[in-house]
Structures are given as structure tokens and as C-alpha cells.
Amino acid sequence: MRLPLKLLVILLGFSQFTKAQSPTWSEVAPGVWKTIIGNPEVFDLLEAAEAKPNVEALQKLGTANFPLSKADIAAEVNNGQTFLRFPLVKEEQIFGFGLNYKTVYQRGRILELHVDHYGGVDNGRTHAPVPFYVSDKGYGVFINSARYMKVWAGSAVRKDSPNAPEPRDRNTDKKWTSKPYSDAVEILVPFAGVEVYVFAGPTALDAVRRYNLYSGGGPLPPRWGLGFTQRVPTLSTAEQVVQSAKLFTEHGFPLDFIGLEPGWQSKSYPCTFEWDKSRFPDPAAFLKTMKSLGIRINLWTNPYISAESPIYKPMLPYVGTHTVWGGVVPDYTIPKAQSILLEQLSNDQVKIGVSGYKIDECDGYDRYLWPDVAKFPSGKSAEQIRQTYGLILQKITTGLFRQNNTRTWGLVRASNGGGSSFPYVIYSDSYIHEDYITGLINSGFAGVLWTPEVRGAKTGEEWIRRIQTVCFSPMAMINAWSSGTKPWSFPEVEKDVKFYSDLRMQLMPYFYSEFAKYHFEGTPPFRAMNLEPGFKVNTELVVKTTNLNVDPYTDTIQKEIKDQYMSGEYMLVAPLFAGQTSREVILPKGKWYDFYTGKYAGDGEVIKVSPGIERIPLFVKDGAIIPMMKATLHAPVAGEKVDLEICYYGAKPGSYKLYDDDGETFNYEKGDFSWRELKVSPDKKGKLIGTISKAEKGKSDNIGNITWKFMTPEK
Ligand code: GAL
Questions:
Q1: Domain ranges of the chain
Q2: For the domain 18-214, what is the CATH code?
């Protein structure tokens, strides 16, 4: 008997239908639970990133109870897709879902998580659409899928919801709203199964830490990675690059690495992955000269291969059906494709001293990349390849440097869940300064690093405002690939730029220790105020439009803070943007002090500041200890003893974990590192004094003389 097609479809549909169930959870590390719904794909985000949980560090965070009501979590597979539902309670706020640039609060938003170039709206299409969210109730949820997932983050209302809002009459009821209360995050995964993780708190920051540690912990940069970097115009020659480096020394500006843009390659894009011999006739000699000047070299590339590249032919069996800018698109999930690329990078570049890469164009836009109908030889879908291309390129190039026991610090334009441990910083072509700061804030929820790079400016004011913020980010960079700008391009603010590039160098012991905490403890070095204890925003709803003649669709939004952030354990950064002469700063509960003067600034209150263009407002907590070094032109090299000046603020006893290792190799993984305790506590007479614990025997010890500076004037 032949069944009519329609009936067959219905029957098949039913046979796949399972009723929504509350999943069974198993604890895979202390405070981390996993469930498997349906039949998940083998290739997921954690698999692509080859994430290795830092179980020891997770154990240190201790055990915890499952942080959600299990009965309120529902999952079901239906018609080849997975439906997930997680509860939200009243007044709960959620953060995350990747690198968003306009919004911090995600409750109420609808997103499709899709690796893409940021296009000016937070709709899920972004450089790192990490499917991880964290709640201010102290837990996190991660959906381990390399698919485009749809998220209704507290926007939809189920008719069987026990918290369903009352229908209201728009004609007469002033409380009528276009956004009725929703009590769940609902997620659609376009596959018949998925792995889901839940991370315990007790605080939201703890949940973020557990997520990062489960992905291997944050990357530990080489010390030089935290110095200043300049990317030079794309067609620069070896000689011009050497001259640029010398100009930095002449002007007295710090510089640790220079980035070469597409013109170092004989053809791009698509790329040949080999030096252009007219601009770089002797790359090895060039790298040697740069090394003698104390400057490392980072190379731009994109992943698409030109027919003129020496790796084109060997790569052909491993490429997809489509081209990008006329280049073939390798399926880098295939080990042979990986080794063909890595061999070229290694022999032609890394072996002669290249220190890292900028991996461009692995994100989007759609019209540039392969379409979703493309096919790849590994059998993975175009969608999976898109969601993981940046992750895999980071993973394999990190391995290349690891082989030589040297750390790298690079740039990438796409990442995803599970990628916390990669030594790459994300950047974008979009250039809205305000968005760049919101991105920096959100990077801390997503297990990624972001730089608000500086390229050009219309005025000296804009230039210094951008420089001030990039100095408080994972990579202090001027990307002059097309503008040709230099730190001193705006003479009217040159001394202010110098002040901040010097301050960046002075703060290296602080930033380095903060990154070590990212690596060993999972704490993001740059993060939202919402992760800070004692931070409270007036959460009242703000009415977006009140003039019904202009817009009858009155809407309300919740006030969110997206222009101030924490930089390490003790420092609060409150940027100003061009045109702004003053701003409000929300100081969390507890006493806060001005970083520059040590003077008391406030306690759990909103203050107004008008600092002038020469300063970015910086505040530190009571008891803050900030280790600083002399402003040098280059980061200290392995084995170099560095004298420290330790600044202490406020009046409360304080302590700080100062991290030390050789700053260049992976020997810390074999235990060659130390934490020194800096402490300010009262002596017998009650006077506060500073002390440092002894260096551990047999471990790297790069700390020279210590002086203490008590910044807050005594009353
Ligand atoms: C862009 C990239 C820029 C620069 C440029 C060079 O895609 O975002 O930073 O590298 O390519 O062509």
C-alpha cells in the first residue's frame, strides 16, 4: 500500500515527537552539570575548540547545588529540531549571548546566533555569538552546538505558563504593554539533539569563571602582548617598517610589536601565504633587525587560498564547493588541511621569528563568505563550518607556537563558545567608539577578548578619547593599515597620548597578574559593572517615547550601564567620548578613590565628573593595591628583573596576588610560576605598612626592588 506523501510526513513527524521533559543532569566537574538531549552531533563547539576543562581550578571553586529549578527546565526533540526552555523569575536579568555592542541586558531580546561581522544591531549576528548566558541570580547556561540557534531570551509567553500575564485592554488600561511578562528563555537548535551545560554561582561572576575554566581558562599573554602595538599601512616595505619602529623610539613612545597588513604577502586577497619579495626581499634579515630593535612582528592573513600560493595544489582535495574572493576555502576541520597550512606558516614565517597572526575575514559578511548551501569534504555543513571557522583557526595556530614553547598574542575576527583559552583578541571594522566600549563590557560575559582599536579620528579630542580606552583593554593598538596614523598624529594631544601609552606600560605588572587570574581562576580581566559586588543601577523603566502624536507605539526599556567597566580586580574605568565634557559614574557600594590623586571619590553613589580631555576617569576601591613598573619602551624580557612601585589606596587593609613567570614560554604549565602576596596591614603601632611575600625557591623571580606609594592623603 502506498501512503499519500502528506500522511507519511505527518506519521514521520509524530514518530520523532517526544514530549517536553525535564532533562537529567550529571555533574561533570564541581558546579558544572551537563545534559544530553536527543542525539547530539559529534561536532559541536567544545569539540571544535578542543576545550580542555581545568578541573583542578574548578575543584578549587568548590561544590555547589544545582542553581535552577530542574523541574522548570524543559527539552524536547521535534521534527529534527531541539526545543529548550529555561525558567526566569521576576526581576531577574540575564547577560551574554556573545559579543553584543549595543546592549548589556539580554532579557526580552530575540536573537539568531550566527557568526558574522557586526552590522550595527544586536540581533545575534556578531563576531562571537557565544551561546552562553549568565543570570544575576548566579548561574550560567551554555548550549554546545555549532548551529545557528534562535533565542527568545524572555520574550515569549506560553499559554500554560503559571506566570502568564493578565491580558489587558489597550483601550482603557494604562498598564497595557506591547511586551507582556515572559518567564522563560526559549531556544531552538536546528538539530535533533544537543548538549547543554549549567554552571553554578553563587554569583554571576562565579558562573562566568566556571564557564571559562571549563573551556580551559583564559589565555596567558606573553608580557610583550600587553605592550603597545602599531599596524602599519598595507603596502609598507621592510625598510619603511624598520623606520617606523625607529620613529617610535625617537618620539619616546612604547612599542612591542608591529602588525604587517595584507601587503606583506605576494598576493592578497585571496592569499598566497608567502612574503612579497619586492617589499620584503629578505624576511629573515628583516625579522632579525626588528628583533634587535626590540620589536616583534605580527602578520595579517585571511584563510582563503590563491591559485598562486604554493599550498594551493596540495590543499585542493580539502576545499569546499565555493570560493571567497576567488580563493579556495579549506575545510580546516580536516587534519591534513590543517597541516598544509601550518607547515607553510611554520617554514616561511614562524621559524624565522614571526610572533603571531591577525586572522581576518573568518566571520562574514554573508556576501563575502560561502553560502549555507556550500559543501565541505569533511561532510560538515556550511553552517557548522561558519560557526567554527574562527575557533579552529585560533586553535591550530596557537598549537603552532606552543610547539616551539613560545606564547603568541594575536587578533581574530571570529570566535565562539569554548574558545576562552585562545590567545586572540577580537576586533571589527565597525568604528563606533561607544559600541566598542559596550563590546568590551560584553566580552567579559562571553569568554572572549576584544580591543576597541584606534584607527583614525576627526579631531585630536576623538583621538585621545579613543587612545585612553584602548589602553584599558586586552590590546593597546593603533591599526593604521589604511590611515597611516601614529600616536603623535595629533600634536595637540601628543603629550596626553604619551601619558596613557606610558601608563599602559607602567600598569603591566597589574594587567599581567589580572590575565593570570583569567587563566588560573577564570576571572575576565575586563568586565561589566554588573559583575561587581555592590553595583546597583536604578532599574526603573525608562519610557522611550512619550509623545503619542509622534509615535503611538510607546515603549519602555530598562536602564543599563554600558559605558563604564572594571579593569582588573580594583580599577573602574569610565570613558568619555568625543564631544562629552562631563559624565556620571556609578560607584558601587564601598569607598572609591581617584586613581590619579588617591583622593576619596564616593561610596555607592552616582558622581559627576568633568575631567578635561587629558584624563579618562579611573577609580579604585578602598584597600586597592596596584603594582606598577617604570614606563619602558618595551615589555621586560624573560629573566629581566623589574623594580616595582606599588600604589596603595584608601584606608582599609588590602592584599593583592602578584603573578610572576618568565613571561614568554609555557613553562608555567609545568609549575614554573609564582604568586607573591602584596599586603597592606597595620603594624604594632597601628600604622599601615606594605609587605611582599618571599619568592618561591627554584621559581622564576623577576621582581627587583619594591617601593610603596601610599596614594590617599591621611586625614
Ligand atoms: C579588514 C580588517 C582591517 C584590515 C584590512 C586590510 O578586513 O578588518 O583591520 O586588516 O582588512 O585589508
A1: 18-214, 228-518
A2: 2.60.40.1760
84-106 as b/e, with b when 16 or more CB fall inside 10 Å? Answer: bbbbbeeeebbbbbbbbbbbbbb
d(CA 171, CA 175): 11
Task: List, chain by chain if needed, residues with CB within 6 Å of any ligand 1 atom.
Answer: 234, 261-262, 300, 360-361, 429, 479, 481
185 torsion bin: left (phi>0), alpha (psi -120 to 50), beta (else): beta
CATH of domain 228-518: 3.20.20.80
**SS3 of residue 506 by DSSP:** helix
Cα 101 to ligand 1 centroid, rounded to whole Å: 19
Q: Residue 657 Cα, ligand 1 centroid: separation in angstroms?
A: 38
Q: What pLDDT, in 10s, does the model give residues 192-233?
A: 999 999 999 999 999 999 999 999 999 999 999 999 999 999
Of the candidates 473, 414, 418, the one whose C-alpha atom is nearest the C-alpha of residue 446 is 418
CA distance 209 to 31: 11
Backbone angles phi, psi at 81, to 5 degrees: -130, 160
Q: Measured between alpha carbons, how far is 129 from 443 in angstroms, rounded to an integer?
A: 11
pLDDT tens, residue by residue, 591-608:
999 999 999 999 999 999
The residues, ordered by sequence, that sit 6+ positions from 211 with a Cβ below 8 Å of its Cβ are 132, 134, 140, 142, 197, 199, 420, 447, 522
The C-alpha atoms of residue 238 and residue 244 are separated, in whole angstroms, by: 10
Protein residue closest via CA to atom 11 of ligand 1: 360
Confirm whether pTM is higher than 0.85. yes
- Confidence (pLDDT) at 655: 98
* Ligand 1 site-directed mutation target among 359, 368, 481, 485, most atoms within 8 Å of CB: 481
Inter-residue contact 64 to 29 (CB < 8 Å) = no
Helix (H) or strand (E) holding 476: strand 476-479
pLDDT tens, position by position, 612-660: 999 999 999 999 999 999 999 999 999 999 999 999 999 999 999 999 9
Residue type, 396: I
- Asked if 664 and 223 count as a contact pair (C-beta separation under 8 A), the reply is yes
Q: Name the residue of 300, 361, 477 whose CB sits within 8 Å of the most ligand 1 atoms, as the mutation to test its pocket.
A: 300
Grid-cell match 622564576, residue found = 700
Closest CA to 418 of 37, 5, 47, 36: 47
Nearest CA to ligand 1 atom 4: 481
| 494-506 vs 508-521: helix crossing angle, rounded to 10 | 50
d(CA 349, CA 343): 10
Substitution candidate for ligand 1 out of 360, 367, 425, 470 with most atoms within 8 A of CB: 360
